[in-house]
Amino acid sequence: MRRAVLLLGSIAALSTACGPPTVRPATYSDPEIRCPGGRSAWTLEILDERPEPEGSEKFVAAIRDGIEKSFPGCRWTTGSSTGVDAVVIEIHRFRSRLEDQSSWEAAVEWTVRAQNAGGRTLTEFQANEEVSRPNYRGSDNEKESLTEAYQKALERTVKGLRALPAIGAFRPRAGTPDEPAGGAGSAAGGS
User: Fold this and answer.
1) pTM, whole model, 2 decimals?
2) Phi-psi group of 154: left, alpha or beta (phi > 0 → left; psi -120 to 50 → alpha; rest → beta)
3) What's the CA gap between 170 and 104, in Å, rounded?
4) What is the pLDDT of residue 175?
5) Parallel, antiparallel, or unpaired: how do β-strands 121-134 and 103-115 relate?
């Protein structure tokens, strides 16, 4: 009986170790800022640009969930970022690996770009976090290190998007056209 219990425990441990780890959810909401840039809706496009996108759907879902719950007053849609106000996140790294049997090295890196419907970039920044965690016995160190790096990158992303009102809220003075008649860079009335 004891042997059967040990065998079942080993099988369960091996079956949960297959595939990429999941990360614990995280949110960083602020009641003062319900939606980035003072808007009511954004399209959120998350692209996995890693060379080996194993577990992509898990990581994309975790990032999407974290962003959407951090801005609960915002209506988020999915789809292409072309021709709409959009936040685009390009994932470059999302992994944790064992180094020298002594520590887990996690790295999460993505680029965040917010653009208006006309394609103008309102902000662009990197969220790049690296975490080193000792290889503790009896702990899912891969998941813990990756979760810590993910949560730091998500927090940095949310802070960057919260800054959008100051960055993207430029409005010309009343009576001033949005763009000079000759287009941007026109020499009319030049200096």
Assistant:
1) 0.76
2) alpha
3) 44
4) 61
5) antiparallel
